[in-house]
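Lab channel / #folding
Pinned by the channel admin:
"Please post every new chain as: sequence first, then the structure tokens as a reply. Keep commentary short and put observations after the output so the thread stays searchable."

First post following the new format, from NK:
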Amino acid sequence: MFESRQAGEVRDALARHGCRYLFIGKSGAIILGFPDTTQDTDLFPEKSPENGRRLAAALRELGFALTPEQEKDIERGKDFVQLRNGPFDIDLVFAPDGIERFGDAWARRVEVDGFPVCSIDDIIASKEASGRKKDHESLDRLRAFREYLRLRGPGPHRPPAG
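Reply from TO:
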């Protein structure tokens, strides 16, 4: 189960290793304040060999027992790497549906208490483009949450209305 302590540990370890990444998916939405739960942590890392090496080192520090194949997949930025060999479940999504480039998503990111998070628009776009039933089932609530964020307006640790 995704927990704020766990998210903080991920944020801190990746920061220590200089990784570029964004929280995405439902875990990203939860950091933005979306009232829900999820079973894993979803990350959108920048796809580069150097970032992949840093990410693998951070994951090992967190307690993930990466296989040589997983390390190679992370370094080369395989589209999707699912890790179930650590203290919690984590999905590395190097090529999320509905988002063209990491740099574009990075420019639209929201920082929440030091957490780099995909914008709610990018999270919704990714779920819309996924084609997965479970993602489509959450879209109405995510869209309502986006409207709530817009009506609430910017504030400390809040995304700007847009």
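NK: Confidence is low (pLDDT under 50) at residues 156-162.
TO: also worth noting, The longest strand covers residues 41-45.
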